[in-house]
Amino acid sequence: MRSLRILMVSSEGPPTRSGIARTIGYLRDGLQDRGHRVDVISHPGVQRVALGEVRLSRLIFHLTGLARRIDDYDLVHLHGAAPTVSDAFLLFARIRGLRPPLVYTHHCDIDMSPVRWLSGFYNTLHHRLSAGVDQVVSTTSDYATEVGVRGRISIIPLGVDFARFATGGPKDRQFTVLFAGQFRPYKGVRVLLRAMASVQGARLLVAGGCTARNCTEEQDYRALAAELGVYVEFHTRPGDDHLRELYRRAHAVVLPSVTRAEAFGLVLLEGMAAGCVPVASDLPGVRDVVAETGFTFPVGDVDGLATTLRRLRDEPALVEQSGARARERASTFTWERTVSEYERLFVDLVVTRELRSWLMDRADATGLRAFLTHVARSLEAEWAEVLLRTANHQVYRVGSAAGSAGTAGWRLTRAAAPLARYSCDIGQGVLLESGGADASWPLTARPADWTGSAVAVPLTADGSHFGAMLALRERPFARHDLDRLTRLAGHAAPKLRAWHNMVSIPDAVA
User: Fold this and answer.
1) What are the Cα distances from residue 193, in Å, to 138, 261, 471?
2) Chain segment 466-484, per-residue pLDDT in tens
3) Which of 39, 426, 479, 499 has the smallest count of CB within 10 Å of its CB?
């Protein structure tokens, strides 16, 4: 896989201690380990002013210098939503006409309770701005659907360093609940403190800190705990080893956030890796992480949270079973997987962006062949093709390429023309296994002796399905292969349509 020059733009990055900063660190390190060059623009490198929950970045003052070197990068990866960071960069990209592909990861909406109407206005504007990027990424499909994120969407969950957080050793003898996170009002620590007031015999650990100057959140938490008679162990700004020990001790990790500014919950995954039962507010995205391994409660519902914690306190067997399921689920959310999916997305976008210049420079389709070689190799396919059709529905092969094991391609291609027609006719992707796993594809349309696996997606422009892109191989494809081909075809279709209008079509295939 080719080496890329990547620029990441975010509100926060290492060494700042936050979920987004930790995400930036893992992505940067993982991509660099794979041979890519990654530069990060974020706080603390870019100064900001914090006014309570409002953080205003000085990124706008860096855009002039950035404009002079932005074309040195193959791709820009923006993270948001973050006022004066992601919105400023999206405006900059739209006004300037950014040439490197732009990927925008939408981590969360802005949701500030005192000014909900203003938050809603900002989010609507931000979604419209982000709809113009090359690819939008959401960490869960649930959150993307609930908040209405627009544009081309890829779902790439965040990960957890499982080996690091899957700590061994026994839990505390006393039922122990852990909160880990920044001391910010939307995190809902007050909800947890009030719930713990009616969970006798349980211990509460509160780990975290506040990044704003003169922050009074911890003092307020201590005062409320004293008022409620709740004993709390406060662990302010714990180091990594200290935090791992807290996860090891706890039976349950609680994320009681009260707004949609919480959209995933890395601390849930970290606790789950350590065998903690995840308990969280029923928020989009967050509930996807918890899934069937833990418990959710209505946002801000003190009694609902208390009921769940009392049940866990009283049922040790349930804690053990749920903790084991949580650990198993966390093991599937690896940073290796997250980095791999981002890497594939980045390379696909860069290669597809190059397709336009390839096609315009070489009317003989040499560039299309180079693109299809990438398609075949990235899907580990033996053959990849693009077929276009005319007004009378004839199908023409305009480009093909063999993958790493292309010797079987000549046998597989007998299915290409009928499969291309079928995909265009129904206007959606098709995954076909040997023997016809997709029973909707008429048997009469298949070669009688054809064996193998194929994925095909229509090429669509201006609402018209004008062709199809296919990949074929002997061993079975999976759903994620079809999803990736769909993404590649979606980005390539406008370029292929423009090229098709400029050149004559070569040999018909059927």
Assistant:
1) 31, 20, 55
2) 899 999 888 889 888 998 9
3) 479
How many angstroms separate the CA atoms of 41 and 48, rounded? 13
Answer positive or negative: Cα dihedral of 79, 337, 385, 153.
negative
Assess whether pLDDT exceeds 70 at residue 53: no
d(CA 109, CA 125): 11
Q: Are 285 and 139 in contact (CB under 8 A)?
A: yes
Q: How far apart are CA 435 and CA 228, in angstroms?
A: 67
Euclidean distance between CA atoms 109 and 261, whole angstroms? 6
Q: Scanning the structure block, which residue is given the tokens 């040499």?
A: 366
Instruction: Provide, rounded to the nearest whole percent, the portion of the chain with pLDDT above 90.
Output: 48
In which residue are the tokens 């995933």 written? 264
Mean per-residue pLDDT over the chain, rounded? 86
pLDDT computed for residue 361 by the predictor: 62
**Alpha-carbon span 60 to 289, nearest angstrom:** 35
Give the 3-state DSSP-derived string for 482-497, with helices as H, strands as E and coil as C.
HHHHHHHHHHHHHHHH
* pLDDT band for position 396 (cuts 50, 70, 90): confident
CA distances from 129 to 148, 298, 306, 346 (A): 13, 32, 41, 20
Domains and CATH numbers, the chain: 5-155 (3.40.50.2000), 162-333 (3.40.50.2000), 362-500 (3.30.450.40)
3-state DSSP assignment of residue 388: strand
Q: Is the pLDDT of residue 98 over 80?
A: no
Rounded to whole angstroms, how far apart are CA atoms 60 and 261?
23
Q: Is 172 within 8 Å of 249 (Cβ atoms)? A: yes
Q: Helix, strand, coil: what percent of the chain each, to 5?
A: 45, 20, 35
* pTM score of the predicted model: 0.86
- Is residue 448 predicted with pLDDT exceeding 70? no
CB atoms within 10 A of CB 161: 16
Q: Which residue has the tokens 């290796």?
A: 336
Mutual orientation of helices 335-361 and 479-500 as an angle, nearest 10°?
20
Amino acid in the structure at residue 51:
L
pLDDT of residue 285: 94
* 440 neighbors 423 (Cβ within 8 angstroms): no
For residues 178 and 321, the answer to whether their CB atoms sit within 8 Å is: no
Q: What's the CA angle centered on 248, arms 242 and 250, to 5 degrees?
A: 105
Pairing of strands 135-138, 153-155: parallel
- Tens-digit pLDDT profile for residues 234-276: 999 898 899 999 999 999 999 999 998 899 999 999 999 999 9
